Amino acid sequence: MEQKWPQDIWLVRHGQSAGNVARDAAEAANGLHIDIAERDVDVALSALGLDQAKALGDWFGTLPQEQRPNVVLHSPYVRAVETARILVERMAAAETPVVQVDERLREKEFGILDRLTVLGISQKYPELHDQRQHVGKFYFRPPGGESWCDVILRLRSVLDTITREYNRERVLIVGHQVTVNCFRYLLERLDEATILAFDRAGDVPNCSVTSYAFDPALGKRGKLVLKLTNFVAPLEQAGTRITVQKDIPVAPKA
Questions:
Q1: 11-25, 77-91, 181-195, 219-233: least confidently modelled range
Q2: Do you find a cis peptide bond into 97, omega within 30 degrees of 0?
Q3: Residue 154 and residue 179: Cα distance in Å, rounded?
Q4: Domain 8-237: which topology?
Protein backbone atom coordinates (compact mmCIF):
# COMPACT_ATOMS: atom_id res chain seq x y z
CA MET A 1 0.00 0.00 0.00
CA GLU A 2 1.19 3.53 -0.78
CA GLN A 3 3.16 5.16 2.05
CA LYS A 4 1.39 8.31 3.21
CA TRP A 5 4.04 9.94 5.41
CA PRO A 6 7.59 11.17 4.95
CA GLN A 7 10.32 8.81 6.10
CA ASP A 8 11.41 11.37 8.72
CA ILE A 9 10.13 14.69 10.06
CA TRP A 10 12.29 17.01 12.15
CA LEU A 11 10.70 19.99 13.95
CA VAL A 12 13.18 22.75 14.82
CA ARG A 13 12.56 26.01 16.63
CA HIS A 14 14.67 28.87 15.23
CA GLY A 15 17.80 30.07 17.04
CA GLN A 16 17.71 32.75 19.71
CA SER A 17 16.48 36.02 18.23
CA ALA A 18 17.19 39.65 18.99
CA GLY A 19 13.58 39.77 20.17
CA ASN A 20 14.29 37.13 22.80
CA VAL A 21 17.10 39.29 24.16
CA ALA A 22 14.91 42.43 24.19
CA ARG A 23 12.13 40.54 25.95
CA ASP A 24 14.50 39.39 28.71
CA ALA A 25 15.70 42.97 29.25
CA ALA A 26 12.13 44.30 29.46
CA GLU A 27 11.00 41.69 31.96
CA ALA A 28 14.14 42.09 34.10
CA ALA A 29 13.33 45.81 34.33
CA ASN A 30 9.64 45.13 35.10
CA GLY A 31 8.76 46.97 31.91
CA LEU A 32 5.43 46.87 30.15
CA HIS A 33 6.69 46.90 26.56
CA ILE A 34 9.42 45.03 24.69
CA ASP A 35 11.74 47.58 23.13
CA ILE A 36 12.37 46.48 19.57
CA ALA A 37 11.77 48.55 16.45
CA GLU A 38 11.21 45.88 13.78
CA ARG A 39 8.02 44.07 12.97
CA ASP A 40 7.97 40.65 14.57
CA VAL A 41 8.37 39.07 11.12
CA ASP A 42 11.61 41.06 10.60
CA VAL A 43 13.35 40.21 13.89
CA ALA A 44 16.68 38.52 13.13
CA LEU A 45 18.80 36.00 15.00
CA SER A 46 21.07 37.20 17.77
CA ALA A 47 24.79 36.39 17.66
CA LEU A 48 24.09 33.43 19.94
CA GLY A 49 21.21 32.34 17.68
CA LEU A 50 23.61 32.25 14.72
CA ASP A 51 25.97 30.02 16.71
CA GLN A 52 23.10 27.75 17.74
CA ALA A 53 22.03 27.30 14.12
CA LYS A 54 25.61 26.54 13.06
CA ALA A 55 25.97 23.92 15.81
CA LEU A 56 22.73 22.22 14.79
CA GLY A 57 23.62 22.38 11.09
CA ASP A 58 26.96 20.72 11.83
CA TRP A 59 25.11 17.93 13.67
CA PHE A 60 22.84 17.31 10.68
CA GLY A 61 26.02 17.19 8.60
CA THR A 62 27.31 14.25 10.66
CA LEU A 63 24.33 12.10 9.65
CA PRO A 64 24.84 9.68 6.77
CA GLN A 65 23.91 11.29 3.46
CA GLU A 66 20.86 9.08 3.05
CA GLN A 67 19.56 10.15 6.49
CA ARG A 68 19.89 13.93 6.15
CA PRO A 69 16.90 16.15 5.34
CA ASN A 70 16.21 16.48 1.63
CA VAL A 71 13.23 18.84 2.05
CA VAL A 72 13.37 21.99 4.21
CA LEU A 73 10.17 23.95 4.93
CA HIS A 74 10.38 27.12 7.00
CA SER A 75 8.43 30.05 8.38
CA PRO A 76 8.76 33.39 6.51
CA TYR A 77 9.89 35.15 9.72
CA VAL A 78 13.49 36.33 9.33
CA ARG A 79 14.77 34.39 12.36
CA ALA A 80 13.40 31.16 10.87
CA VAL A 81 14.65 32.02 7.37
CA GLU A 82 18.17 32.61 8.74
CA THR A 83 18.09 29.41 10.79
CA ALA A 84 16.99 27.34 7.79
CA ARG A 85 19.64 28.89 5.55
CA ILE A 86 22.42 28.12 8.03
CA LEU A 87 21.21 24.57 8.59
CA VAL A 88 21.23 23.87 4.85
CA GLU A 89 24.68 25.43 4.41
CA ARG A 90 26.25 23.61 7.36
CA MET A 91 24.79 20.16 6.71
CA ALA A 92 26.71 20.25 3.39
CA ALA A 93 24.53 17.71 1.64
CA ALA A 94 25.82 16.29 -1.63
CA GLU A 95 22.28 16.72 -2.96
CA THR A 96 20.86 20.22 -2.40
CA PRO A 97 17.60 19.92 -0.43
CA VAL A 98 14.34 21.36 -1.68
CA VAL A 99 13.89 24.58 0.36
CA GLN A 100 10.46 26.18 0.56
CA VAL A 101 9.07 29.06 2.61
CA ASP A 102 5.51 28.51 3.87
CA GLU A 103 3.53 31.30 5.54
CA ARG A 104 1.42 28.69 7.34
CA LEU A 105 4.48 27.94 9.49
CA ARG A 106 4.59 31.48 10.93
CA GLU A 107 4.44 32.06 14.67
CA LYS A 108 1.11 32.41 16.45
CA GLU A 109 -0.22 35.95 16.00
CA PHE A 110 -0.88 37.81 19.25
CA GLY A 111 -2.79 40.79 17.87
CA ILE A 112 -3.06 43.70 20.29
CA LEU A 113 -0.89 41.83 22.82
CA ASP A 114 2.08 42.22 20.48
CA ARG A 115 5.26 43.45 22.24
CA LEU A 116 3.75 43.43 25.70
CA THR A 117 5.43 41.73 28.64
CA VAL A 118 3.40 39.60 31.02
CA LEU A 119 3.14 42.62 33.32
CA GLY A 120 2.16 44.83 30.39
CA ILE A 121 -0.69 42.51 29.41
CA SER A 122 -2.12 42.40 32.93
CA GLN A 123 -1.91 46.18 33.38
CA LYS A 124 -2.95 47.40 29.93
CA TYR A 125 -5.64 44.78 29.23
CA PRO A 126 -6.77 43.38 32.59
CA GLU A 127 -10.09 42.12 31.19
CA LEU A 128 -8.31 40.20 28.42
CA HIS A 129 -5.84 38.86 30.95
CA ASP A 130 -8.68 37.58 33.11
CA GLN A 131 -10.53 36.16 30.13
CA ARG A 132 -7.43 34.30 29.01
CA GLN A 133 -6.94 32.84 32.45
CA HIS A 134 -10.54 31.61 32.38
CA VAL A 135 -10.61 30.26 28.81
CA GLY A 136 -7.01 29.00 28.66
CA LYS A 137 -4.44 29.60 25.93
CA PHE A 138 -5.66 26.72 23.75
CA TYR A 139 -8.93 28.49 22.90
CA PHE A 140 -8.26 32.14 23.82
CA ARG A 141 -7.95 34.42 20.79
CA PRO A 142 -6.77 38.00 21.50
CA PRO A 143 -8.27 40.73 19.31
CA GLY A 144 -6.45 40.65 15.98
CA GLY A 145 -4.59 37.48 16.96
CA GLU A 146 -4.90 33.71 17.01
CA SER A 147 -5.66 30.92 19.44
CA TRP A 148 -3.68 27.69 19.46
CA CYS A 149 -6.66 26.14 17.64
CA ASP A 150 -6.24 28.67 14.84
CA VAL A 151 -2.58 27.69 14.49
CA ILE A 152 -3.51 24.00 14.51
CA LEU A 153 -6.02 24.59 11.72
CA ARG A 154 -3.39 26.03 9.38
CA LEU A 155 -0.89 23.33 10.34
CA ARG A 156 -3.43 20.64 9.39
CA SER A 157 -3.23 22.16 5.92
CA VAL A 158 0.59 21.95 6.02
CA LEU A 159 0.38 18.24 6.86
CA ASP A 160 -1.98 17.74 3.93
CA THR A 161 0.66 19.30 1.67
CA ILE A 162 3.45 17.21 3.19
CA THR A 163 1.60 13.91 2.75
CA ARG A 164 0.66 14.84 -0.81
CA GLU A 165 4.03 16.18 -2.02
CA TYR A 166 6.73 14.77 0.28
CA ASN A 167 5.74 11.22 1.20
CA ARG A 168 8.84 9.01 1.62
CA GLU A 169 11.05 12.14 1.82
CA ARG A 170 13.03 13.41 4.83
CA VAL A 171 11.41 16.69 5.88
CA LEU A 172 12.92 19.37 8.14
CA ILE A 173 10.50 22.05 9.39
CA VAL A 174 11.91 25.27 10.90
CA GLY A 175 9.36 27.26 12.85
CA HIS A 176 8.55 28.68 16.25
CA GLN A 177 7.70 27.54 19.75
CA VAL A 178 3.94 27.37 19.28
CA THR A 179 4.20 25.74 15.85
CA VAL A 180 6.44 23.01 17.26
CA ASN A 181 3.95 22.32 20.06
CA CYS A 182 0.97 22.39 17.71
CA PHE A 183 2.65 19.95 15.32
CA ARG A 184 3.19 17.66 18.30
CA TYR A 185 -0.52 17.94 19.09
CA LEU A 186 -1.35 16.79 15.56
CA LEU A 187 1.33 14.17 14.95
CA GLU A 188 0.97 12.52 18.37
CA ARG A 189 -2.83 12.92 18.44
CA LEU A 190 -2.77 14.67 21.79
CA ASP A 191 -5.57 16.48 23.61
CA GLU A 192 -5.71 19.99 25.06
CA ALA A 193 -4.69 18.94 28.59
CA THR A 194 -1.67 16.95 27.44
CA ILE A 195 -0.15 19.52 25.09
CA LEU A 196 -0.67 22.33 27.62
CA ALA A 197 0.99 20.17 30.30
CA PHE A 198 4.01 19.83 27.99
CA ASP A 199 3.97 23.60 27.48
CA ARG A 200 3.84 24.31 31.21
CA ALA A 201 6.68 21.87 31.85
CA GLY A 202 9.10 24.00 29.85
CA ASP A 203 9.61 26.11 26.75
CA VAL A 204 10.92 24.64 23.50
CA PRO A 205 14.68 25.42 23.44
CA ASN A 206 16.03 27.45 20.55
CA CYS A 207 17.46 25.16 17.82
CA SER A 208 16.20 22.04 19.60
CA VAL A 209 14.99 19.06 17.58
CA THR A 210 11.77 17.08 17.94
CA SER A 211 11.69 14.26 15.40
CA TYR A 212 9.53 11.45 14.05
CA ALA A 213 10.40 8.39 11.96
CA PHE A 214 8.03 6.33 9.84
CA ASP A 215 7.35 2.79 11.03
CA PRO A 216 5.63 0.69 8.34
CA ALA A 217 4.70 -2.00 10.87
CA LEU A 218 2.25 0.21 12.78
CA GLY A 219 -1.40 0.51 11.78
CA LYS A 220 -2.78 -0.31 8.36
CA ARG A 221 -0.46 2.05 6.43
CA GLY A 222 2.30 2.70 8.95
CA LYS A 223 2.69 5.61 11.36
CA LEU A 224 5.16 8.25 12.46
CA VAL A 225 6.87 7.44 15.77
CA LEU A 226 8.33 10.06 18.11
CA LYS A 227 12.13 9.71 18.34
CA LEU A 228 13.51 12.94 19.85
CA THR A 229 11.89 15.61 22.03
CA ASN A 230 13.48 19.06 22.49
CA PHE A 231 16.86 17.46 21.67
CA VAL A 232 19.72 19.88 22.41
CA ALA A 233 22.75 17.56 22.47
CA PRO A 234 24.21 19.14 19.28
CA LEU A 235 24.38 22.51 21.04
CA GLU A 236 25.84 20.96 24.19
CA GLN A 237 28.50 19.10 22.20
CA ALA A 238 29.49 22.34 20.45
CA GLY A 239 29.67 24.25 23.73
CA THR A 240 26.89 26.58 22.57
CA ARG A 241 24.64 28.06 25.24
CA ILE A 242 21.10 26.67 25.35
CA THR A 243 18.24 29.18 25.55
CA VAL A 244 14.54 28.64 26.06
CA GLN A 245 13.19 32.17 25.76
CA LYS A 246 9.79 32.65 24.20
CA ASP A 247 9.34 34.38 20.88
CA ILE A 248 8.05 37.94 20.79
CA PRO A 249 5.28 38.66 21.54
CA VAL A 250 4.90 36.87 24.85
CA ALA A 251 1.78 35.92 26.78
CA PRO A 252 1.52 34.50 30.29
CA LYS A 253 1.31 30.79 30.96
CA ALA A 254 -2.11 29.23 31.41
A1: 11-25
A2: no
A3: 10
A4: Rossmann fold (3.40.50)
